[in-house]
Amino acid sequence: MAGDELLPRYARKKAQTRQRIYQAALELFAKHGLTATTVDQITARADVAKGTFFNYFRSKEQVFAYFIELQLGRVGEALAAVQQGRPVRPVLRRAFQRLGGEIGGSPKLAQALIAAIIGNEIARETVATGMRQGRQRLARIFALGQAQGQIRADCQPAAMGLAFQQAVLGALMVWAIHPQIQLARRLQAAFEDYWKSIEAA
Predict the structure, then answer these.
(1) 3-class DSSP state for residue 120?
(2) What is the DSSP letter of 102?
(3) Cα distance between residue 176 and residue 83, in whole Å
(4) Of the chain's two ends, which shows fewer C-beta atoms within 10 Å, N or C?
């Protein structure tokens, strides 16, 4: 992960182990689905002991908490960039691509994540909580964009944040069903359509 090289060696090793477990879980979710995937399978793929898994995650569903943590970090980076004076459009475009690109271009993973979020109460509540936090950060970005005259002033920042999340999820869902077009291109097209709806005249 970005910034890991700045951590002390022990903390860096912990971060790398957590990331390895997370990636192993995502690969298995894509292959078997959340329900059919076991903690034993995750630990075997990640090459860690079962106790190590529970040092980082309370359950396999809690892997989604780490997914949300990564997503919130990307939105936080976008907010910091706008606060530092960077133009809103390229910052949001990059955030849109990074948020949608977390699944790594795997249609099966996108399908598994969507199914898990909809069909598993723990995963659904974890993601819902993270999305609320993400909307708060997005709303601050939009409010700054409005103050700078880059974003239309007749829309509520919170509503634009929700629409942003819907645009990302919608692009992912369409791509998961019809993956013939590259995910990056699908996300780019979705962002451009979204930007047109909020851009200041």
Answers:
(1) coil
(2) G
(3) 34
(4) C
Residues sharing a CB contact under 8 Å with residue 98, sequence separation 6 or more, in sequence order: 74
Handedness of CA 163, 165, 172, 114 (dihedral sign): negative
Query: How remote is the C-alpha of 84 from its chain's centroid?
Result: 23
Instruction: Indicate the Cα dihedral angle 104, 108, 113, 119, nearest 10°.
Output: 180
Are residues 124 and 193 located together in one domain of the fold?
yes
* Residue 148 Cα distances to 82, 144, 145, 197, angstroms: 10, 6, 5, 17
Residue 2's pLDDT band (cuts 50, 70, 90): very low
Are 149 and 166 part of one and the same domain? yes
**Tens-place pLDDT, residues 32-49:** 888 899 999 999 999 999
Number of domains in the chain: 2
Look up the domain containing 53 and give its range. 4-57
Domain match, 32 and 68 both: no
pLDDT tens for residues 134-172? 999 999 999 999 999 999 999 999 999 999 999 999 999
DSSP one-letter string for 151-165: B-TTS-HHHHHHHHH
Classify the C-alpha dihedral 149-81-114-159 as positive or negative.
Answer: negative
- Domain containing residue 139: CATH number: 1.10.357.10
